Amino acid sequence: MKKVLINKLKKKAEELYSQQRHEEIIELLIPYDVREDPELALMLLRAFLDVSENKDDDILDSAEMLLMLVPNAENDPRWTYQLARAYYFKERYCEAYRELLNVKALAAAGKDFPEQNEAEELFELAKAEFDKICAVSYSKKEYDTITAHITAHFGNIVNMCSQKEYPAFKIEVAEIQPEPAYGRDYYTFVTIGVGAHIMNIPLSFGDMVPERCELVMYLPPDISDEMRRWAVGYLCTIGRLPIERNSWSSYGHIFSNGRPIFNGTKLCASTLIEIQDADEGASACTLPGGETITFYQIFPLYKEEVDYKFAHGLAELIEKMPHISAVIDAERENVCLDESGEHDDKPPKGSPLLAEETDYVSALGIGELCCASKRITEEGCLVGYMRRNLIDKETGGELEGDSGWLFMSGFETGEYLSDPNNMEICRLNVICNIDSEIVPFLKAPYNTVAVRGSDGKLHIEPNDPSDELLS
């Protein structure tokens, strides 16, 4: 956008803001790529949240996506405050509290901002909710019941550990040493405290998903102190996620930040499976009040196994592993690679798993790279939204080889988009091979937007409004 247009947009948005006409601000700014000007992007984000505060809708998803796409927002207290608002409205109070702590730190460093008083008020509200969450714990009777269950089914507890970096959350990890005489020649680690919190299960699942759970991990008998500390931290981290995000965890959920889970391995993700190598009663514990605590086992995966799971389902992946031990092994066999190191199954049509590629892009001359949601690149979803963002060659801000295209499936939630690891820079040709319907649109001019309509086909959206609309 030209500077003159940006200034007109800012002036009009401020005028509408003074009149509390927040929906009109969204209508004004949403057709433009506001990332070109952080101030303009902030105005749009503020409008998203001002609308969301007063009615129950999904507009927060758009707000969280905007936060993710604007670079260096975390160093600006105005942006951080708006992110905290987004989390607070989503009832993700732990994350709101954490961001507001960042706001206070930035403000203390001399970065004043107009909403400072509002941020202080929101901090007190978020802190009160955060303190309520941290106060949740098992009663003594419940705690004794859980520890008795662990002892009966997993072995004698020799040590209780915790993650010192997060003392607010009352999550401990019980350590059970190897007991070869009982057929357990491995360490067992079990969380105590995750299940004190009732998870926020979607209503559509009804009673199919347990509301409370604890986590189990098996490690080899010769582990180092470093590996023991990793196990405690990893269990606590995964255990905290549904608590912090007001969300849920269950059988088959995948946890990954895109990096190896610990040094010296190519295992890069974990999933939750049923308890292995234990008697039938180990998987559930009934508390004195009648509530059930379900125990899930953490099982690490390679990237290729994660791809296979998304394409075929966890049940089929597990069927490939009858010979794989439930004890974590940093160098275990990757069951989704053959001897040459390639995938051993041809993926179904539409799957993102590696296969022969058709070259759609090289002859177009528009750049080889794009930005895409992992809903497309890892789960094989079709493209539901595509936009070609203008590359600012004058300022040298472009990524070399960037086509400008951004691809989303349309199934990304706000929670999904709030994690930057769920978007990636990839080759444009990869997206073409997953969904070849995008190819006819790729040479469209910058700022073109195409959306998949109710007929299942991609259609070009109307052009951006002209400058005259702002006068």
Task: Please explain how this structure is put together.
With 471 residues, this protein is of the alpha+beta class. It has three domains: 3-135, Tetratricopeptide repeat domain (Serine Threonine Protein Phosphatase 5, Tetratricopeptide repeat, Alpha Horseshoe); 140-319, no CATH class; 369-460, no CATH class. The chain has 14 helices and 14 strands. Strand 7 and strand 8 (292-301) form a beta hairpin. Helix 1 packs antiparallel against helix 2 and helix 3 packs parallel to helix 5 (77-89).
Main features:
471 residues, alpha+beta, Serine Threonine Protein Phosphatase 5, Tetratricopeptide repeat, 3 domains, 8-stranded mixed beta sheet, 6-stranded mixed beta sheet, 14 helices, 35% helix, disordered C terminus
What is the number of helices? 14
Structural class: alpha+beta
What is the tally of beta strands?
Answer: 14
Straight-line N-to-C gap: 16 Å
Percent range for helical residues? 25-40%
Biggest sheet overview: 8 strands, mixed
Radius of gyration based on Cα positions: 25 Å
Query: Would you tell me the overall average pLDDT?
Result: 82
Question: Topology, pairings included?
Answer:
Blueprint: H1 3-18, H2 22-29, H3 38-52, H4 59-69, H5 77-89, H6 93-108, H7 116-135, H8 140-154, E1 157-162, E2 172-176, E3 187-192, E4 213-219, H9 225-244, E5 254-255, E6 269-273, E7 284-286, E8 292-301, H10 303-312, H11 314-319, E9 369-373, H12 374-377, E10 385-388, E11 402-408, H13 414-417, E12 423-427, H14 428-434, E13 449-452, E14 458-460
Parallel strand pairs: 4-8, 9-11
Antiparallel strand pairs: 1-2, 2-3, 3-4, 5-6, 6-8, 7-8, 9-12, 10-11, 10-13, 13-14
Helix pairs in contact: 1-2, 1-3, 2-3, 3-4, 3-5, 4-5, 5-6, 6-7
